[in-house]
Write a structure and sequence with these properties.
The chain is an alpha/beta fold. It has two domains: about 90 residues, NAD(P)-binding Rossmann-like Domain (Rossmann fold); about 80 residues, NAD(P)-binding Rossmann-like Domain (Rossmann fold), CATH 3.40.50. Helices cover about 35% and strands about 15% of the residues. Helix 7 links the parallel strand 6 and strand 7.
Length: about 180
């Protein structure tokens, strides 16, 4: 079975695919995808590759498209369905990374990293402690989807008070997290 990996995925992911008996894993680029797709059984994409009707026209043997990530907006679902091509996605695949990103930004802002970075680039060392600690602070969240719930879980580990708001539900997913109703504007 020929499996094309059209977009960059982790080395570990490629290795897992290569370990499958009888699978021929082909890593392509935008320049080589059209040449390789004709006899491919499966295609793995992220968001860079667009699986269009034109691409599907060239993929006569294609049986499945796997989207490594959330959503399938880069895949022509109607055309894939007409051709009997199964389309799958991995909606939780990047949830941890996406949920960690707000914490990185939060810490950078609270600890005033942009200001200290600028000072260092100007050759100034500002030794004074600036910013605040985030431990024990209240974190307000709007939305408790997959990412919001992971954010609450991570926040509880850092001992923050959480102030979640979700128009759909009010559920305490982690008993150890402190959840307070959002009454503040």
């Amino acid at each position: 079975m020929k499996v094309i990996v059209a977009d960059k995925i982790s080395e570990r992911g490629v290795q897992l695919l290569k370990e499958q008996p009888g699978w021929n894993i082909v890593l392509t680029t935008k320049d080589t995808l059209n040449k390789e797709i004709a006899d491919a059984d499966a295609l793995i994409v992220r968001s860079a590759t667009k699986v269009t009707a034109e691409l599907l026209d060239q993929a006569k043997k294609l049986r499945a498209v796997g989207r490594a990530g959330v959503g399938v907006d880069n895949i022509d679902l109607d055309e894939a369905t007409k051709r009997g091509v199964l389309v799958m996605s991995t909606p939780g695949g990047s949830s941890v990374s996406v949920a960690e990103h707000p914490f990185a930004l939060l810490l950078a802002l609270v600890r005033q990293l942009p200001r200290f970075d600028a000072a260092m680039r100007e050759g100034r060392w500002e030794k004074s402690s600036a910013g605040a600690e985030v431990r024990g602070k209240t974190l307000g969240l709007i939305g408790l989807g997959r990412i919001g719930r992971r954010l609450i879980h991570s926040s509880a580990k850092r001992r923050h008070e959480n102030c979640p708001w979700n128009s759909c539900r009010s559920i305490n997913f982690w008993p150890n997290a402190t959840l307070s109703p959002c009454t503040r504007p």
